[in-house]
Amino acid sequence: AWFFLIDTARFKNDYGSIEMLILLIEDHHLLAETIMDYLAIEDIEVDYAARGFQGLELAKTNTYDAIVLDINLPDMDGFNVCKQLRQQYNIDTPVLMLTARDQLDDKLTGFECGADDYLVKPFANQELVARLTALMKRQRGEVTRKRSQIGNLILDSSSQQVWRANKEIILSPTGFRILRILMRESPAIVSREAMQQELWGTDMPDTDVLRSHVYNLRKVLDHPFEFAMIQTVKGVGLRLVNSEG
């Protein structure tokens, strides 16, 4: 096994100041060294693997901002590596694929396997850094959008989890959707009609089940705490307010 690890640093250049850790999977040792030397100059931290299997092991045990993946690897091709990352291990780290062939079929196959971007050899190192930065910014933006916070209340849409004051709150699926709507619109008031329309559309329940769902949501979200974040505005609707003022 042949691995390189460059000391943790900060990435500061024309693209902005961003911490970055990438995984490079490339069997051409001279090219790999050239890439790592340039990334080191840009103060980007790199883990390196020369084979697909080694790269998978690193990707499973570490968290990366991006993966640079060569298609032509000795033990398994980059398409297979990317497919395993996505389908077998559920790793959503952005993948930038490298290839010596500027073929449309290769690009389409890469995208079908879950690649996010494609770079044809030979390439300018500056372009590699620019593409990696764009991928990482997009990924971090998506992660931020999946997690909402108001005061000490945090909702994670991707994991369907909720915490208040660092305590996990267990909600029903409908309770989770109600809270997500209230957090999205906060501090504005959400009318009962708008809430029901978003929850059930035209398939509206015959009974007033919204009242029951809101009661159960309040019971777990507000009752254990001193401050009630869900407030009823009589005759208008519901709103979520910041528990920290």
Automatic annotation (TrEMBL):
Spell out the InterPro entries in the cross-references.
CheY-like_superfamily, OmpR/PhoB-type_DNA-bd, Sig_transdc_resp-reg_C-effctor, Sig_transdc_resp-reg_receiver, WalR-like, WH-like_DNA-bd_sf
The family database entries (Pfam families) matched by this protein are listed as: Response_reg (PF00072), Trans_reg_C (PF00486)
OmpR/PhoB-type domain location is 145-242
Which residue ranges hold the DNA-binding region? 145-242
Gene Ontology process terms (BP):
regulation of DNA-templated transcription
Q: Where is the Response regulatory domain?
A: 21-136
Coiled-coil intervals: none
Which residues are recorded as modified (4-aspartylphosphate)?
A: 70
Q: Which domain of life is it from?
A: Bacteria
Q: Name one GO molecular function term.
A: phosphorelay response regulator activity
Q: Name one GO cellular component term.
A: protein-DNA complex
Q: Which UniProt keywords apply?
A: DNA-binding, Phosphoprotein, Transcription, Transcription regulation, Two-component regulatory system
Q: What is this protein called?
A: DNA-binding response regulator ColR
